[in-house]
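Quarterly update from the structural biology core.
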Amino acid sequence: MDSGKVKIIKKTAAGFVVFLLIPLTVALGVWLFKDRKYNIISAIVAFLSCVPFFIRFEKGVNGARELVVIAVMTAFSIVGRLVFAPLPGFKPVTAFTVISGVALGPEAGFLVGSLSAVVSDFFFGQGPWTPFQMFSWGILGFIAGVLLFRAKKKNLLLICLLGAAGGAAFSLMMDVWTTLSLDGGFLWQRYVANVISGLPFMGIYAASNVIFLLVLTKPFLSKLERIKTKFDIFK
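Predicted structure, tokenized:
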């Protein structure tokens, strides 16, 4: 089988995991287990989050180096969330997730976002919302990677627009969990009410993403591109 077909199969498999298996797992936690087994669901989502990366994982030194870079970006994201904990809605998690997707690829972006949620929630408190956070942050990193990883020039304005849209999208996705947790089912009227009541948080979070990306994008992209070139990783 030629390398082109292999790449298509790998991308299809990664998309299958991200857009079907993980959402189905999160839905399973809501409807089948009624959110009572959220720790199990979080563990399954964490495992599935690794699958897209390991589908394209290269064994050997380069693969290990890629894992180290992902671990470092995840650590920055977690520490950033902890440092800014006193400021509601003002968190750098989406910024680090987007930067990871743009610089390291969609699979790495999803992994950084997902692991940032589950690990930081050990400090903030695990709950039925954790799988939703894992998927929401993860998918933002994945989409950022799909859109900009192969771009020759990483446009800061476009990255900031992604961050702002990501802040709105994260809030909208988490409002799905809020609606389900209140009613035990999805009611559009309740969802719209939750979205409207959450608009201030959405605005703050979207604006904070832009601020963090303006500050962090250039230095982090520069460092990550240097590391990629030096060690020939994340090709």
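The chain has a mean pLDDT of 90.
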